[in-house]
Amino acid sequence: MNKKCPIEFTLSLISGKWKIIILKELSQKPLRYGALGKCIPDISSKILIQHLREMENDGLITREIFPEVPPRVEYSLSKMGISITTILIELRRWGLESDWQNITKCKQCKKCQPYIGEGG
After folding, report:
1. What is the C-alpha to C-alpha distance for residues 67 and 53, in angstroms, rounded to an integer?
2. What is the average pLDDT across 75-87?
3. How far is CA 5 from CA 2, 49, 57, 112, in A?
4. Mean of pLDDT values over 93-108
5. Would you give the distance in Å from CA 113 to the centre of its chain?
6. Is the pLDDT of residue 70 over 90?
7. What span, in angstroms and rounded, lies between the C-alpha atoms of 108 and 62?
């Protein structure tokens, strides 16, 4: 059995152009597929679906199907996904401190400040 470095393991879960952004959006509140796609307009449907499936299989997010007509599906962070938001907090901190060219100002949108609501 070949053991992975902890950093390699973490990167294997969140690698890809969009996974961190998906986690950031889901850290605010559970979202339906369409709403998530609107939050990330540059992602293709194919890649969004692929990443959501991978992240669900990896245990980062949960997919809840509500017994309605038509069925409603919501994605949210799992306990494992919530625990990884510390990475988002550090990415935000580093970006605020390190963006010398644009002097990042992000105190207004709060989207990069993970918020886990009741029951999270």
Report:
1. 20
2. 94
3. 10, 28, 20, 27
4. 66
5. 12
6. no
7. 28
- Hey, what amino acid is at 114? P
Distance, CA of 27 to CA of 48 (rounded, Å): 16
The CATH architecture that domain 10-98 belongs to is Orthogonal Bundle (1.10)
Two structure tokens written together for 109: 């949108």
Dig out the tokens for 93 from the structure: 């901190």
SS (H, E, C) the chain: CCCCCHHHHHHHHHCCCCHHHHHHHHCCCCEEHHHHHHHCCCCCHHHHHHHHHHHHHCCCEEEEEECCCCCEEEEEECHHHHHCHHHHHHHHHHHHHHCCCCCCCCCCCCCCCCCCCCCC
Mean pLDDT on 36-43: 93
Q: In the predicted model, what is the mean pLDDT of residues 56-80?
A: 94
Report pLDDT for 18: 95
Residue 16 is encoded by which pair of tokens? 């890809």
